[in-house]
Amino acid sequence: MDWTMAPSGMVAAGNLVLAGLLEQGHEAYFVGGCVRDELLGRPVHDMDLTTSARPEEVMDIFPRCVPTGLAHGTITVLQDGWSFEVTTYRTESGYADHRRPEHVLFVSDVKDDLRRRDFTINAMCRGLDGIVVDPYGGQEDSERRLIRCVGDAEARFGEDALRMLRCVRFASVLDFSIAKNTWRGLLRQRDKLAHIAVERVRAELERIVLGPHPQRGLGLLARSGLL
What we know:
There is one protein chain. 43% of the residues lie in helices and 19% in strands. The chain is an alpha+beta fold. The chain has 2 domains: 8-140, 2-Layer Sandwich (Beta Polymerase, domain 2); 150-221, Orthogonal Bundle (Hydrophobic Seed Protein), CATH 1.10.110. The longest helix has 16 residues, at 8-23. The N and C termini lie far apart (39 Å).
């Protein structure tokens, strides 16, 4: 897997951050949207990293960084004019407001970190060697043009109700289908959207309407009852 869809300067800087973590004995990968978009042949605008290093260890390694989400294990590393969110492997629990986890536990296995993510196409990571780690079938779903939750859909949407709008947005923007079990889980949890702040809802709606297939997105919103 080559980074043909990302700016070369960003890739070079990201590789330096990844290598810096590896040199200190930690695991580290590019993760999420950048891996998904590269596989789909879509432009890559930013690159996030996931690592076994704890936040304080990340800050010790890199002289220029910002503790943007310290409680959730996220440090923004500044490298050669680019910024990279570096997040410690973690699991989450206790979503009291159907949006943010009350408890975050740092873990040592990247597969545990990928398991907490929303959809299989977002639950892939790529090492410095170009090998993609994909324990939940994200590459296959990308080829099938399918949006599918990682694990139980009803649980994923119950944890974070905004994921329902993200589901519709990805299906609309990418022109993908939604897996039957994922759609059923969305229908069962759609009332939870009332817990989400209106500015978050608006941001997702804008991305749907301004995307390449707005009619498809609005149609899915109408069919689901999320409107």
